[in-house]
Amino acid sequence: MRRTTHHIHTKEILQVYWKHMRPYLWVVCIILALVVAAKSLDVVAPLFYKRFFDLLSGEIPAVSEELPALLRGTILIVLILHLFNWIAWRLFALFSNWFQPRVMADLRQTAFSYLHHHSYRFFSNSFSGSLVRRVNRLADSFEALVDQMVFNIIPLFVIVVGNLIVLWTRSSMLALILLGWVVLYIVINVLFATWKTKYDFSRAELDSETTGVLADSLTNAVTVKLFTGHAFESGLFKNVTERLRRMHTFTWNIGEAMEAVQALLMTLIEFVIMYYAIGLWYEGVLTVGDFVLIQTYLMGLFMVLWNVGRAIRKLYEALANADEMIEILNTPHEVKDVRNAKELQVQTGRIEFQNVYFSFNKTRRILKDMNLVIKPKEKIALVGPSGAGKSTITKLLFRFFDVERGKILVGNQNIAKVTQDSLRENIALVPQEPILFHRTIMDNIRYGRRGATDEEVIEAAKRAHAHEFIEGLQEGYETFVGERGVKLSGGERQRVAIARAILKNAPILVLDEATSSLDSESEALIQEALEELMKDKTTIVIAHRLSTIMKMDRIIVIEDGKVTDSGTHKQLLKKKDNIYKKLWEIQAGGFIK
User: Fold this and answer.
1) Which of 26, 75, 99, 167 is the most buried (most CB within 10 A)?
2) How many CA atoms lie within 13 A of 310 on its CB side?
3) Per the confidence metrics, is the pTM higher than 0.90?
4) Per residue, what are the HEC states of 487-517?
5) Which parts of 283-348 fold into alpha helices (H)?
6) Residue 2 predicted with pLDDT over 50
7) What is the pLDDT of residues 100-146, one digit of tens each?
8) Domain 340-425+553-593 classification at class level
9) What is the CATH number of domain 10-203+252-329?
10) In DSSP terms, which residues pair with 512 in a beta bridge?
11) Residue 44 near residue 297 (C-beta atoms within 8 A)
């Protein structure tokens, strides 16, 4: 998932955000109106401060007896303006607090749903920790983007326009000087933020890499202990965190340099404006109140401009952070349903591979002109050397990958033309290494049929011979199994997986080394459960255990991506110089005939 360019897909990011904002457009309009109103009041209030000081200095003639009342009236107006400003911001907060969390939740849901529809290959090539980080960043970046817009960008626009209009009425030259300076200031900040983007991008990428390394190491904590790899893992993590530290330090330093430039620009414009205003005052164009007005406007303008300098950089940072997830959202799903895909109707459970070709990459051909017919309710075993393509056959049956050529039929339906969900609903899998959710045992078994009752779950557990060990746990079926099921032994996880498959009761069953994690005693218990599970089901078994293979209706020998032989256990042993006989003799040691 490493990127090849530092280009940020700004248009695509904004399109995604707009799509999720559109259902709440009325709230967006209210929020914008409240922000504009509040900042407009900030432009109007200094006009009354000007009036106040002009009254004090005598620039506005007033009878001495009326002066206190005029001053108090002016201050009262200022108070009313500030109260309206306070009300506007409080209303803004209420609407914003309703709006932003909803859009953020929608964004997370969209990212979650789109991620889950990516292919088996996608998840094999991605760190789960990094994907989690990207989902959260998409929502967090939206929050950052909106906050910068409503607290900095929009206020800047209102303040600048309002200040320039008022100053123009006092002196067009003052307004033009300020306008030129604002344009220069913003251009410098935009150019700087654009230049800094590549470093923000690298920082975001390093942050994702750090999260991925951390998640990968913690997920394999037991392996680290077994191979005394703490020092090695610590070195890997130190390396990536050190690179992240250096990038943070560099980006913060250049940010500090830009702030120094901003402060210098503000000092210079204040000097220029006040210097020129003195001449206008001397000429009688400006009053003492105008100096208060100008200074108040400058301070207010400096405040929003100082924040806007950071806001522009924050905007780019937010876009860089969101871009990682947007890139995934713009990546087409490798395996997807065709238009008007039909539901799979399994009537007989017949499976057929017709001239199937498949490669994981250009240099690794797995299946070559593969042809295989599995009769309805037939139990077959796939055997062959490692890498022959046994597991690939089952992955293609689940349509985790699409075939390059040929087709796979279930019944009389091409699985490429039916919905993936309907296909997988009709196939149950008991994998070699079952991975469970960090949920209760009850939840994990019920995942086979999520509408099942507790009684049905318990019955499935009994048939899988899992009920005995579950009842022995302190919390029973409400026991949380830990991440990936680490609190259970391999055999216990396997029995939970078998119970889940029993509960699913799909017409097609795939057993991928389903008894490999069991000791002899557990295997004896499970074999009975598996035999019951396989009843009236089309079953594909990938196994090396002799007891499992011998009971199959037919054994299919796979070599170099093709079916090279088939028959019952006894039929294959009678043949000379075949791969099954060699594999059997290696495993049985010549003692079992």
Assistant:
1) 167
2) 15
3) no
4) CCCHHHHHHHHHHHHHHHCCCEEEEECCCCC
5) 288-329
6) no
7) 999 999 998 988 888 888 777 777 776 676 777 788 888 888 888 89
8) alpha beta
9) 1.20.1560.10
10) 542
11) no
